[in-house]
C-alpha cells in the first residue's frame, strides 16, 4: 500500500524498518521507566515493604553463592488473599525448577498464614511463565487489554507502539 501511494521503492523498504525502530524505542522506554519505578518503590526498601508488614515476606534463591531468583508475597487482610509478586529468575538459571520452588514457597507461606487464596498478575509474554503458574495450580481468571505499567505516560505514540496485556491468576486454597 505504501508503494501504491508513494510510488517509491526506497520509502516502501524503509517504512518497516522505521516502524520496528519506533516499536523498539517505545518498548525500551516503557520497560526502563517501569524498572525505575520498581527500584524507587517496593524494591528500594524490601525490608519495609515485604518483611515488616504482617502477612508479607520476601525470598531469595541462592545457588553456588549467587542470587539466582527472587519472589515476594504481599498479604491483603481485607479479602484474605496473598499476592505473589516480583517473581524473577536469572535468565542463565531458567529451566532448573527455581521459579517453581519459589512459587511453592509462596503457596506454603499462604497456607501457613491461613490465606484463602493466592493471586498474581503478570505481563509476561513468554508462554513458559503462564505454564509455570498453571503447573502450580493457578487458574487464569482474566486479561486486561492495553494495561498501563507504572511509569507509562499513555501518550498516543506509546499506545501505538507498546501495548501490554495483563493476565490475572488465582489459586483458591480454601473457601
SSE blueprint:
Blueprint: H1 2-6, H2 9-39, H3 46-51, E1 56-63, E2 66-76, E3 81-89, H4 98-112, E4 117-122, H5 127-135, E5 139-144, H6 156-161, E6 166-172
Parallel strand pairs: 3-4
Antiparallel strand pairs: 1-2, 2-3, 4-6, 5-6
Organism: Cephalopterus ornatus (Amazonian umbrellabird)
Keywords: Acyltransferase, Cytoplasm, Endoplasmic reticulum, Membrane, Microsome, Mitochondrion, Transferase, Transmembrane, Transmembrane helix
GO cellular component, one term: mitochondrial membrane
What's this, in brief?
It contains six helices and six strands; from the N terminus they run H-H-H-E-E-E-H-E-H-E-H-E. The protein has 175 residues and is α+β, with helices and mostly antiparallel strands.
What's the end-to-end separation, in Å? 57 Å
Corresponding CATH superfamily: Gcn5-related N-acetyltransferase (GNAT)
Q: What class would the helix/strand composition place it in?
A: alpha+beta
Percentage beta strand: 25-35%
Sheet with the most strands, sense and barrel status: 6 strands, mixed
Description:
- This protein is an alpha+beta fold.
- It has a single domain (10-172), classed as 3-Layer(aba) Sandwich (Aminopeptidase), CATH 3.40.630.
- Helix content is 41%, strand content 27%.
- Strands 1-2-3-4-6-5 form a 6-stranded mixed beta sheet.
- Helix 4 (98-112) links the parallel strand 3 (81-89) and strand 4.
- The protein is elongated, with a radius of gyration of 20 Å.
Observed structural traits:
single chain; 175 residues; six-stranded mixed β-sheet; EC 2.3.1.17; 41% helix; Aminopeptidase; alpha+beta; endoplasmic reticulum
Amino acid at each position: 500500500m505504501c508503494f501504491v501511494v508513494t510510488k517509491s521503492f526506497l520509502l516502501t523498504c524503509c517504512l518497516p524498518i522505521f516502524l520496528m525502530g519506533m516499536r523498539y524505542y517505545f518498548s525500551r522506554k516503557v520497560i526502563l521507566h517501569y524498572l525505575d519505578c520498581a527500584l524507587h518503590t517496593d524494591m528500594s526498601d524490601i525490608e519495609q515493604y515485604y518483611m515488616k508488614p504482617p502477612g508479607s515476606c520476601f525470598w531469595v534463591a541462592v545457588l553456588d553463592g549467587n542470587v539466582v531468583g527472587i519472589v515476594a508475597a504481599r498479604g491483603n487482610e481485607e479479602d484474605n488473599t496473598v499476592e505473589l509478586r516480583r517473581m524473577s529468575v536469572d535468565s542463565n538459571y531458567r529451566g532448573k525448577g527455581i521459579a517453581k520452588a519459589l512459587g511453592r514457597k509462596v503457596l506454603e507461606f499462604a497456607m501457613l498464614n491461613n490465606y484463602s487464596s493466592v493471586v498474581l498478575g503478570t505481563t509476561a509474554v513468554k508462554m513458559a511463565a503462564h505454564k509455570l503458574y498453571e503447573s502450580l495450580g493457578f487458574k487464569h481468571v482474566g486479561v486486561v487489554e492495553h494495561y498501563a505499567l507504572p511509569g507509562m505516560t499513555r501518550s498516543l505514540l506509546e499506545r501505538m507502539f507498546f501495548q501490554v496485556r495483563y493476565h490475572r491468576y488465582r489459586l483458591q486454597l480454601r473457601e
